[in-house]
Amino acid sequence: MSVNDSPKRKSRDSSVSRKMWRFTTGTNIKLKLPQTISMCLGNITSQNLTQVSSSIRAAIQDLTARVTVTQQFHNTSKENQEITYLYSLPDLATISSFHADVDGRIVKGIITPKKKAEEKYNDALASGRNAFLSQQVSAGQFKCNVGSLSPDKKVKLVFTYVMELSFTDTNTIVFTLPKHNHTLHEVPFEVSIFTTSPVQKVDRSISSNIIPPDHELTLKITVKDAFGPVGLAEIQPSGGVVAAFQYHPDMREDEDDEQVNSEVIFLIDCSGSMSGTPIRSVNSTMSLLLRGLPPTCHFNVFDFGSGHRQLFSSSRPYNKENFNLAMSKNENRSADMGGTELYQPLEMILKSKPLEGMSRQIFLLTDGEVDRSEECIRLAERDSHLTRIFTFGIGSGVDRNLVTQIAKKSNGRCEMINSSNMEEAVMRQMNHALKPALTELRMEWAGWKPSEKISSSPYHLPPIFSGDQLIVYLHLEQSDVQKVKNIEGTLRGKSGRKDFSQKIVIDLSTASKPSEEDLILTSLQSGRSYLHSAEGALLDTNSDITAAVEKISLSTGVLSKQTSFIAVDDQSNVVSDQVTQVVEISSEVLMEECYEEEDCDGDMGFSLHDDDEPTSLRQCIEEAEECEVEEKYEMKKESQTSKGGGSFWKSFGFSASAEEEQESMDIEQKPVASSGGPLLQPLPSSSTISSSSAPSSSLSSPSKIISCQSVEGHFEATVLPHLGGIQLEDIKGHAGFGSHFELFLTAVVLAYLEAKMQESKTVWSLAQRKAKNWMKREAATRGLDLNAVAEEAQKLVSRK
């Protein structure tokens, strides 16, 4: 079946006929693009003496993907060439194989310790042989050396990487290929898709059937059931089995009911450099954060400088008494603590165990360089299975490596902020952080005694937050496989104080049998290993980690920071007395400027190619690698239904946008391939995406409204001067709900925010969530129709 007929189009090199995206019905989908199209990967200053072409092939299997990139180099000069090129990868991609095709001969890359690989490469070139060296230079960058390439000689390099994917918008899997600097040509691409749950729709970020120059390719795969547990298994060539247990629990109801079982700790820099506007902005932002905390959480506040002080001896429940004390201290906070010593308060927090049934989240705000920064990063990584840290670098003098790495190693997020955008940035991350979570997670394997060793990863399971997923890998040797027909794994943990469990049974007779180069789960299981001692403790010292990473890499054939792929063509004979021309090529899109506001997601576990040190590229590119600028910050869509009826939430602006409604109509009218309608839909172009304007540094109107919210969640009468002319009499004198003053006033405030302050929703969405849950409880107690209350509130706001 074909989709989107397109006319023929000429490229710069040749006439290329666009082929249709094609797929089969059901859960296996194949998308194909033209088979031979050149792609220039970079600007070569030496008169483009080296021609480069590329093709990409991907296989997506539920939340895992394997991507194979083929690069062909052609030396069109009259001299030998040694080529070095850089290739951008997704941040958490793991290189699993590498080989060279020289005149039809396959020269396979062998994983070797990095120093030995470099020595073999140099020795091969000195002896007149072709050699190929590939290395992971950072968490998003792959480097390959081709040497020595004779005049008019061609060589084809093929490398494969694997990665985990994630869900977004509840039931949509996202697959992305990074943007590259294809200044002249387009790239052929082919992908096959298999999902356990039937595919309903596949959106794509490009309107044509090929990847144009300077375009990022994104596929959004909508499946029917995103919350069902999934079990996959593949049989290795050795006879062993790697199984993947995929969990994506449905916690939407808990999220709607604000059942957020979190311990929230604020860690605030009060050193002398924070004096003036920075500390005033922090205090203003903290006021919003304290008011937005959910009633089910515990919290604490630490100020640090040369020493540290804390609000409570340990985290306390969020109630009116503790809130008032925190607000009092917040109003009097000043930058009077001298230097910047972060390690001691961070260590003190992490040494204590998280409260039972609660996830722990730390919000770190700092403006400078701290002492013992590398040790702080190690602390964050060592406790990453228990604690997420969200970091905010204030101003231009902050240690960017510190704040980005702490967030990355602890599965949090980071942002670079200033006084003007602080409220929006911090509130945005608070919205991301304050979600229900499954904690104290562990796997139980049927058929094995607790004393028996099971090779599973990650070793320490992090919490699963609403909307997130977790994949646990299990490796069985051939001798173990012969004993069992099924593999049963049960994930157990806590949802608040309630027990949680979910079981997956994998029938080994259904396991796939891919060739060695097509293995996905095996490579992911190797690359996602948590490094731990025999007793289960995470390794502490850098030397321990380096040795462990190298050992895992050498035994599994997965590339790491400590190893390289080396391939030597023993049959080649390059004349070595000629001058060798060095050509450097980069596939990266160079950033024209550095951005003040940035955001980066943390890892979900330890990756073999993690890099703590900055790369040697210019500072601007380095910072772009660490933190991607977000053009659009999407708030998680609220549920459009409630226990009392659906129209209530729609009346408060929770309905889908016109674009989302159209997509929903597309699903209803043309749901699957078998119905005859298109399964593939184009994504909105980047021109339709805009950033929300940042609040001013002074107290903005939404902030003034939020400051009038009570701990319980309702709004008080002091909010009326900020509601654009709505008077006390409008509330009290209402014929239907005037006697329910707090309930109706709160409904009016929510209606006002939705109608008048959509551009600042990031700032007030926490207050909205808290208020609507209070309203649900209050309306149920009073026996009122919440939809009717909302409709009357909307009418009142529309008249003003």
UniProtKB/TrEMBL annotation:
UniProt cross-references to Pfam families, sorted A to Z: VIT (PF08487), VWA_3 (PF13768)
Q: Where is the composition biased (Low complexity)?
A: 674-701
Question: Could you name the domain of life of the organism this protein comes from?
Answer: Eukaryota
- Annotated ranges, domain VIT: 35-163
Domain spans labelled VWFA: 263-434
InterPro entries xref list: VIT, VWF_A, vWFA_dom_sf
Query: Which residues does the annotated region (Disordered) include?
Result: 660-701
- State the protein's name: von Willebrand factor A domain-containing protein 5A-like
Which species does the entry assign this protein to? Answer: Planoprotostelium fungivorum
Q: What is the lineage of its organism?
A: Eukaryota, Amoebozoa, Evosea, Variosea, Cavosteliida
